[in-house]
Amino acid sequence: MPQLRSHPSDAQGKSSTATLTLAALGVVFGDIGTSPLYAFKEAFNPDRGLPLNEMNVLAVLSLMFWSLTLIVSLKYVAIVLRFDNAGEGGILALQALAARATRNKPRLAAIVAMIAIFGASLFYGDAVITPAISVLSAVEGLSVATPAFQHMIVPITIGILVGLFYIQNRGTGAVGRMFGRVTLIWFLVLAALGAASIAQTPAVLHAIHPVYALNFVVHFPVPAFIVLGAVFLAITGAEALYADMGHFGAKPVRLAWFWLAFPSLICNYFGQGALALRDPGAMKNPFFLLAPGDWLLPLVVLATAATVIASQATISGAFSITQQASRLGYLPRIPTRHTSATERGQIYIPQVNWLMLVLVILLVLGFGSSSAIASAYGVAVSGTMLLTTMLVAVVVRHASRLRKWLTIGVLSVVGSVELVFFLANAMKIPEGGWFPLLCGLFVFTTLTTWKRAETIIAARESARQISMDSLLTILGPDIPRVAGTAVYLSPHFGSIPTAFLHNLKHYKVLHDRVVFLTIVDEDVPRLSDRERTYVHVIEIGHIYQAALHYGFMEEPDVSRGLELLQNHGLKFRTEETTFFLSKTTLTRAAKRGWFTWRRELFRWMQRNSPATAEYFNLHPERVIELGTRMSV
Asked: What is the per-residue pLDDT across 208-227, written as a single tens digit (0 to 9) for each?
């Protein structure tokens, strides 16, 4: 069976760069764009013990400026966006690139896979915290307008979050078209508020000089290390630049960052710093106090809209990661509902949606304020960033490029900075940082347990499989045939599926036409229809081997795939076609041991997994499933 390759989609060429850049603003920069609501304020949280004076304000602003420059502008925008997998980004797409680069080094390939899966697992912790801290920090602006709203902050936040998760099943197509415009207004307002404040205290611009950050780190290493956890909040959301590049392309993301997002963020942070120098009392909420009194309530509404957009991006990202993990074999088959006929990235997974809502509400109720949640933020994100740097370094190391050593050198410097950020955030583990780590560890355990068990089952089944070359010998000339078509789903293209052997053993008949169908998972995001199908004739008119290829960001649809097989002369009538599936389940452990719980976890996941027929979009009345039990 030939190997198939995906070609980058030309959908991006159908839209102008300006349109894609505007759209990228809403999806890619929503998370990092709402960081000014809480990042600078957290640096001077009384719990950190950093005195509010001119030198410390300039030092914190300098740290924020150079963190955004090094990690976001240099690492992600200048380097990481160059490494796409057929136009797609994200840590699992990067893992596919690294897997190709290390295919001749099994041990390194295994390490790379674990790094990518752990990074993807940590993303779920970020995806739960982002809606909670973003919406909560926006609603807290009401208490600045009037203290009477103080007791309503948490209920209003929960109400907005419930509404946000509730509409996920309806899709975000109509709302999504507004995301770019709202975020554009948001960044312009950030810039305007910051610039107005800077104009009153222009001396704050001295913080652009790196000497303020370096002196602070060298002369006050302990306070600097403590405050880095808050500084890091300014770059949370940077991973989305790479994860969502597949929707827009690298160029629009770069344009949106350098021409609007980056300068607007810097303006606002420096504006908050200028306000703090003029009025130290404004540090209770420097973002909202930048606005004139008459603008406060409209700013709260705009901030809430911006945080909903930022939350939407991480929720959609969680759906995408789940879909990719399922397609790569780290989760059972999970049906994915597409909520838009035109936007390929808009999907909905009910189980993930409602679980995230429960966790987000518990987070809001448990912590109660954005400052408290900020102590839990950063650990998962900094870990994911560091793991991404490691994967990019692996890809660059094995690439045939003249400047690869220069790139590795730059990544080493950036990785060292990210390691310091991770260690600084690790100090917040007792204060709440344990939450995203616990989420990530649970997801990682679940993903690796499923993958390990499926690998063991596949190896056992492979050992006792019969080659397809022996098929005609097994059948012989005297097997009676019955009318109709039998489609046997086969996990391995070159082997006879166990469902066929069981059927032949018990019923001793053969359908007039038999098709052995294999679903092939490719390590590219998507394939065109002309690349999707392959057919091999075993016996003309009677027995065929067929394969349907799907990228790891696609959802298999066997019913539509069978229609594509008409191009090979295979036509199927629903009322005359029967699908035979096989299912292997693990028995209980004969003797309990240290890791018996992983077997039971896998068995529980198997019992609660969606039916194969549902996942592959088969007509349930035309499906027969034959099961076997395996003792490992």
From this structure: 999 999 999 998 999 889 89
Buried b / exposed e over 242-275, threshold 16 CB at 10 Å, is bbbbbbbbbebbbbbbeebbbbbbbbbbbbbbbb
Query: Given pLDDT bands bounded at 50, 70 and 90, which one contains residue 12?
Result: very low
Angle at Cα 152 formed by Cα 435 and Cα 162, nearest 5°?
55
| 530: number of Cβ within 10 Å | 9
What the block records as the tokens of 346 is: 């808009």
Is residue 447 within 8 Å of 330, Cβ to Cβ? yes
Cα gap 349→327, rounded to integer Å: 14
Q: 188 vs 28, 142, 195, 261, 629, CA distance in Å?
A: 16, 21, 10, 9, 62
Q: In 394-409, which positions are buried (b, 16+ CB within 10 angstroms) versus exposed (e)? A: bbbebeeeeeeeebee
616-621 contacts: CB < 8 A, separation 24 or more?
616/333, 616/489, 616/519, 616/556, 616/557, 616/558, 616/559, 617/556, 617/557, 617/558, 617/559, 617/560, 618/558, 618/559, 618/579, 619/559, 619/574, 619/579
Least confident of 53-67, 182-196, 503-517, 551-565: 551-565
The answer on pLDDT for 424 being more than 80 is yes
Residues in Cβ contact with 621 at an 8 Å cutoff, skipping those fewer than 6 apart: none
The CATH fold of domain 16-453: Amino acid/polyamine transporter I (1.20.1740)
Neighbours of 575 (CB within 10 A): 8
**What DSSP line would sit under 401-436, residue for residue?**
-TTHHHHHHHHHHHHHHHHHHHHHHHTTIIIIIHHH
Distance CA 71, CA 67 (A): 6
- pLDDT tens figures, 269-289: 999 999 999 999 889 889 999
Sequence-separated (6 or more) residues with CB below 8 Å from residue 172: 312, 316, 339, 340, 346
Please state, as a whole number, how many other Cβ atoms lie within 10 Å of the Cβ of residue 14.
Answer: 9
| Top mean-pLDDT range of 281-290, 327-336, 497-506 | 281-290
Residues 6+ apart with CB under 8 A from 607: none
Domain assignments of the chain as residue spans, ordered by start: 16-453, 467-630
Residues 525-533: what's their mean pLDDT?
84
Look at the block and give the residue holding tokens 């068990």. 453
Give how far Cα 153 sits from Cα of 132, 138, 364, Å: 12, 10, 10
The alpha carbon of residue 461 and the mean position of all alpha carbons in its chain are separated, in whole angstroms, by 32
Position 548: which residue type? L
Burial classification of residue 295, based on how many CB atoms lie within 10 Å of its CB (0-12 exposed, 13-18 middle, 19 or more buried): middle
Q: How many CB atoms lie within 10 A of CB 368?
A: 14
* Residue 257 half-sphere exposure toward CB, CA atoms < 13 A: 28
Residue 527 has pLDDT above 80, yes or no: yes
Query: Residues of 188-208 as b/e, b for ≥16 C-beta within 10 angstroms?
Result: ebbbbbbbbbbeebeebeebe
Q: How far apart are CA 182 and CA 26, in angstroms?
A: 7
